[in-house]
Amino acid sequence: MRTLLVNPPPIEGERFIREGRCMQSVNSWAAIWPPLTLGILASLARARGDVDLFDGNVEDGYDLDRTVERAVAFEPDVIVVNTSFPSIEGDAACAAALKAACPEATIVGFGVFFTLLDQKALEACPAFDVGISGEPERTFDEFLDRLARGEDPEGLAGLMTRKGGGVVSGPTRAFVEDLDTLPFAARDLFRNEGYTLPHNGRPFTLVNVSRGCPYPCIYCIAPVYYGPRIRRHSLDYVLREIEHCQREHGLDQFLFWEEIFTLDREFGAALCDAIVERGWKISWATTTRADRVDLEILKKMKAAGCDLLGLGIESGVQEILDAAKKRETVADLEQAVVLCRHVGLRTMGHFIFGLPGETEETVRRTIDFGLRLGLDYMQCYAAVPYPKTELGKLARASGWLRSDRWMDFDFGGRSIMDTGSLPPEKVDAAREELFRRFYLRPGTMLRQAGLLARHPRQVVQALSFLRWMRTKA
User: What are the Cα distances from residue 427, in Å, to 18, 398, 415?
Assistant: First the structure.
């Protein structure tokens, strides 16, 4: 069996991150991520035959025509197409072109788009033959087994198939309990040099540490896609994968990909201690909650090579945080940044404008808060009412939605929700104002100038970033 896995090429010049809950266009101070899940699926497919994987985000000069040419040359039996909400129209067009060129191949879609929409996803994207809902690995593995045996995959848990003009869904697939049973991603199929960090210009890769999140934030899709309970790789597995990346691929920059690195404090401390004990000279970033850090764990993280910590700030107004069921206080946010600065750990803050209760007054308070908080980097988003989230259900029940195009469900795009207290255009203006004022401050620009002097390759990305900001003005 010959399996082709595709991260679609740029759509009208725009590249997209498609990895779990992280779905956005790469149009600002952001990095292109390696398609980790696609790489894991490639490793599973290798047990059954030849595999090709290519990422249109980093392949030189790749467009839809070249994607199709490569597919035709490979003669696949199965084609897996990575998807996301903001890129879905281009992803569907890519699937359609591949289907037309390789009519005997089975086209498979997976990701948050198929998980949150279920049958509607296949109905909206007619070129896909099957769709995977939920974590894709076990479903994909069993799907390939059935194809190899010549059996009908209809009814397989987690799989949606077409039948008689309709869609048939198998039962819900249980989450993978033992994450260590999953293989490492087939990074030898990646162009690893194409994925570089915006703050140092060096190639990096993702290492999954855990899946799931127990917190009830109304806007978040992580508990839907990966479940409300933390499932963690063993310490040995994570260490072996880090070592494998260093030894086999020469990678020493990592994003430890999970929701809350310090939720299991003992595990986080043990991982940091093990990195130090091995003498590994690696750098890594991760994300966590502001109320789950303390001075001791941050010192361990810094000593082990952590140089950037992402924090979900969301808002500087307690009432907004409470309405979003964030279960954090503004004081928690302030204290976390203070502690990070104390140990010399850089911070990336993430803000969401347009959550329920947002007004012009709360916007002003959040902008002021973001500018004085002491962050090193930040990103601003509009609240998106994704299906199956509490916010999505509330928005539909309240008549707040202002778009029915799935590609507009984009954290990094324009606001599509009018809560009645702040119109969408003012949500967009607020996030753009904070973004510009934060990055165009003299102190921030001086720090970035020093960064670019040390890493000249980032000049191109910085110029792209400035052009992007001008389009938002």
Answer: 24, 18, 7
